[in-house]
Write a structure and sequence with these properties.
Layout: H1 9-29, H2 33-41, H3 48-73, H4 78-98, H5 104-123, H6 138-158, H7 163-175, H8 179-201, H9 209-233, H10 235-266
Helix pairs in contact: 1-2, 1-3, 1-8, 1-9, 2-3, 3-8, 3-9, 4-6, 4-8, 5-10, 6-7, 6-8, 7-8, 8-10
Organism: Geodermatophilus amargosae
GO cellular component, one term: plasma membrane
Protein name: Probable membrane transporter protein
């Protein structure tokens, strides 16, 4: 399928603007799926699995553009980022392959609690992520990075919202990077998690190619602008956007938990 039958010019314009905004947010600190995926779910005739797969196609272009821009302007250490990305790619493929077997409502309450904890922890530790001060070296550093890639890569394949934000927080809190360099590495890993999920979705015919490539163009522009903004404004700006995006994720996923789980029980 190139384009959904129910796609109108006004809806297409809406999802393109959403993809542009998502690319910008994703480039700065991750969490662009909070904007892009819900917009895709509003497209008539698009099944949820098609929305998820098409979102991954668009996102891989935006995250690749961001990763390249960060590489040129920030020069993140690829000795950590590339092995971490390789593990994340394999884990994301595994997550996508079992996504249909693991209902999202089971995960969402846990994710909301985790995001609240992350927001509170970051807000009350203003020095967190100001400068890079690595907590580990050698094999322990590499092992921790690989573990982060495996866990968050699998999560991205299964569900996905907030993957970039989880990566940034893990790189800051567990490895000791500042927010800017953590975001630069997170983009490289996020490219891999998107590719891993696509490696499962493409052979199963879930991607809507025409719509996905249109969104990819908008996402790429947003990713380029966002990464340039982040590298120009620095760590303090990235930290502030991180707190805003995590708070928005809490609200969005908290609403999902309420409508899907708690409200039916209250009736």
């Amino acid at each position: 399928m190139l384009l959904p039958d129910g796609l109108t010019p006004s809806i297409l314009a809406f999802v393109l603007v959403a993809a542009l905004a998502a690319g910008w947010v994703d480039a700065v600190v991750g969490g662009g799926g909070l904007i892009q995926l819900p917009a895709l779910l509003l497209v008539p005739g698009l099944a949820p699995v098609q929305a998820l797969a098409t979102n991954k196609l668009a996102s891989v272009f935006g995250t690749t553009t961001s990763a390249v821009t960060y590489q040129r302007r920030v020069h993140p250490d690829l000795r950590t980022a590339l092995p971490m990305a390789a593990v994340a790619l394999a884990a994301s493929f595994g997550g996508a392959s079992v996504a249909a077997l693991l209902p999202a409502p089971v995960f969402k309450p846990v994710i909301v609690v985790a995001l609240v904890g992350i927001a509170v922890f970051t807000a009350f530790r203003p020095s967190l992520g100001e400068v890079t001060a690595l907590r580990h070296t050698g094999r322990r550093h590499s092992g921790t990075a690989a573990g982060i890639g495996a866990v968050i890569g699998f999560y991205d394949g299964v569900l996905g919202p907030g993957t970039g934000s989880f990566l940034v927080f893990a790189l800051v809190s567990l490895l000791g990077y500042d927010f800017l360099h953590a975001s630069a590495k997170a983009k490289i890993v996020n490219v891999a998690t998107n590719l891993g999920a696509l490696a499962f979705f493409v052979p199963h015919g879930a991607v809507v190619w025409g719509l996905g490539l249109l969104l990819a163009a908008a996402n790429t522009l947003g990713g380029y602008l966002g990464s340039r903004t982040a590298t120009r404004r620095g760590t303090g700006f990235v930290r502030a956007v991180f707190l805003v995006v995590v708070s928005a994720l809490v609200v969005r996923l908290g609403w999902d938990v309420w409508t899907e789980t708690l409200r039916p029980l209250a009736r």
